[in-house]
User: Fold this.
Amino acid sequence: MRSFRIKNLFSLLCAVLIFTLLPLNFIKAETPTEGPFKLPPLPYSYDALEPYIDTQTMQIHHDKHHAAYVDNLNKALSKYPNLTDKSLEYILANLDVLPVDIKEAVRNNGGGHYNHSLFWTIMGKNKGGEPKGKLKEDITKTFGSFENFKKEFKTAALGQFGSGWAWLIKDKYGKLMIVTTPNQDSPIMMGISPIMGLDVWEHAYYLKYQNKRGDYIDNWWNVVNWDEIEKRYK
Ligand code: MN
Assistant:
C-alpha cells in the first residue's frame, strides 16, 4: 500500500513536471533566438517620417521584416559557433568562405540586417534638403548638379527589377558612383562600405504608394539625413 502511494506520487510529479515544461518550450520557440546579432532600435519614433513614410510601414518594416533578418541570421550562425565572434561586415565581405549550407541564409539575412541597420540611420524627422560641404562638392563634380544626381539615383532605383536597393558608393578609386543590388545584396559584400542606400523592396512603400515606386523615391528625399550621410562619407 505504501509503495503504491509512492509510485502514484512519483507519476503525479512526473506528469506535473511534463505539463509545466511543455508550454515553456512553446513560449521559448516564439521569442527571438539568442545570438550575436540584435535588432537595433529605430533612432526615432515610428511616425517620425510621416507623411512621406507612414507609421504602419515603419512598424512592419522594422519590427517584422528587419527583426526576421536578425533572427534568421542568428539561427544560421548558431550551427557554427566559431563564426559568432566575427563582425557582420567581415562575414558579409567573406561569403565565399562560409560553409555551403548557410551561405545563402547568411547572404540574404545578414545582408538584410546590414542594409536595414544603415537605412534607418540615414533618415530622420524634419530632414531632407541638400548635402553640404565636401559631399555636395563631390556630388556636383561627379553628377553635374545635385538635381541631376537625384535624377540619376531615381532612374537607377526605378530600374532595379524586383526587390533590391539603390546605393551611393565610393569606388576603389575614390569616385562617387550610383549602383543597384538585387534582393538583400549589398556593396559591403564587395568590401565597399556604402554611403547611402534606398530600399526599393515593395515592403518599404506598398501600403502608402502601392505600385508607384517613383512617387516613393520622390518623397523619400524629404526624410534623407544628409548630416549622417556626410559623416559616413568622411
Ligand atoms: Mn526592407
Summary: The first strand starts at residue 164 and ends at 170. Residues 61, 65, 116, 199, 201, 203-204 surround manganese (II) ion (CB under 6 Å). The radius of gyration is 23 Å.
